[in-house]
Amino acid sequence: MYEAKTLGADNPTALLHSMWLICSMHLGTWTGKETHSLQWGDISLQLDDSNQEYILYNTERQTKIRTGVNERNIRLAKPRAYAIPDIPQKDPVGLYKLYKNKRPADMNGPESPFFSQYKKTPMGINKLYGIMKKMMTDTGLPPTDKRIIPYR
Hints:
The chain has five helices and three strands. It is α+β, with helices and mostly antiparallel strands and about 150 residues long. It has one domain. It has a three-stranded antiparallel beta sheet with strand order 1-2-3, with helices on one face. α1 (about 10-25) crosses α3 (about 90-100). The longest helix has 15 residues, at about 10-25. The chain is globular and about 40 Å long.
């Protein structure tokens, strides 16, 4: 997917897809309602004790699975994604910084939607659901491949 430029920093769509993948894989957001309700202030850039940069998922909202009722379904640690400066195309921190710089300035408020279309409107839930299918199509994978289906 990086060679096909559907992931990485080569173009706005690839950057958006990369942020979606980082949120899904590294931060553990589900691809449906949880990703759609993600706000800019829910994810922040941090430094650990050894001065390594990472992005932190600060605010986890209740979902169908994590309702807050069952203590076993509450994460003990907040999800993090550490910088990988040696591989810029896959570096969560570098991509996050680039994504922040490309967003309209007034969309960087804590309650702004995390996923926008590089304009002042949030990305629709159906568009978020279709990201995996679009990435598969762009790389030549059959979009009906049942092994690669996002959660809804």
